[in-house]
């Protein structure tokens, strides 16, 4: 990536405002064609959102987007929409025992509403606040119960594939456990065993850092620092690690860039969460510095890989080892080309990663390393600036997507290839659009000197 070192957050104020204008039209259109009771929208085909059965993980992004729209614009229409749909439709996600996606669905809806209520952005009765808190507590415990112990003595939240499967994605669903812990909740297991949600959060983060993220230390032939394996496979009989794997990437030994992006954003936001806790919370885990050091090591490795391996404008192709890239030998030396004839780009990975780069930069600056932090911060601004312009941000009122050129599952051939093209392009995804909104809100609050945006907001510490 060619980092623009002179770019400043206020330079993006006007295109961010334009994003919110386009976003409102997208939300309105999706509500017309995907009303309550219809399958959850996942990605667009010919500009219209459609469902794709695999696992139920995008409905929280649909209604969370309305809540973010209110947060950014103060338009009460979108608060009413987000509240109504959360109360009426999201309860099954709270107790969904079959997915690793609680941080996606429930923190994006109940969590955003609780955050705004605690910020005083709308009048909420104590009963309403209690309702949001109870949903988040239940969600955190259900997610934490989806647990596989490892031979090393820790464990991980296993993916929808089953107890053998650790996904890189799930680092972002640690949001759910963090919210539960901040609200004073625990998981009650067999024989009234009280399981710490914070301990499970840290153990999952440790397993992900150990097995999903590479550090250039000779782990295998393809051990490049910052590379990410989408899936890690374990023997469930004894918790022993077996091998790397990938569900949506090209191979276990290349890097699916959206999996990388989840790592890029997941660790920095958890580092911000750790800063809200008391030192006593870490006494059984080797101390605060041990836990934060583990997360920071993983975050920096993944962010450095992103900066070093992505195209000049920060927009990645869907996998760093995608075979068609051999026909584009200079692809990282120039801006990504979503209309090429060999491999699709994935703008959703860029929308996710931009926020992680920004948060890591902010975190390091706050912790006294302004020089290093500036590199990540400027990389985040560079990436997001690209998304806020042609050919990514969509001004077309007939297209329900906000950010174009997203890819869901290239190996399964799920993504739409327009007539005359050889690879998918021109379409959007619910997670890509949501995370573009999240990153826009994050920067807008900084530009306006408003309260710093975190997923946990001003909830009270349990310490």
Brief write-up:
The chain has helices spanning 13-33, 59-73, 76-89, 91-94, 102-105, 107-118, 126-145, 174-182, 197-211, 257-274, 288-309, 347-366, 370-387, 430-447, and strands at residues 43-45, 48-50, 147-149, 155-157, 165-167, 187-188, 194-195, 231-235, 240-245. It is 45% helix and 6% strand.
Structure description:
The protein has helices spanning 13-33, 59-73, 76-89, 91-94, 102-105, 107-118, 126-145, 174-182, 197-211, 257-274, 288-309, 347-366, 370-387, 430-447; strands spanning 43-45, 48-50, 147-149, 155-157, 165-167, 187-188, 194-195, 231-235, 240-245. By secondary structure, the chain is mainly alpha-helical. It has a single domain, classed as Glycosyltransferase, CATH 1.50.10. The strands form 4 sheets. Strands 5-8-9 form a 3-stranded antiparallel β-sheet. It starts with 12 loop residues before the first helix and ends in a 16-residue tail after the last helix. Residues 459-463 have low confidence and may be disordered.
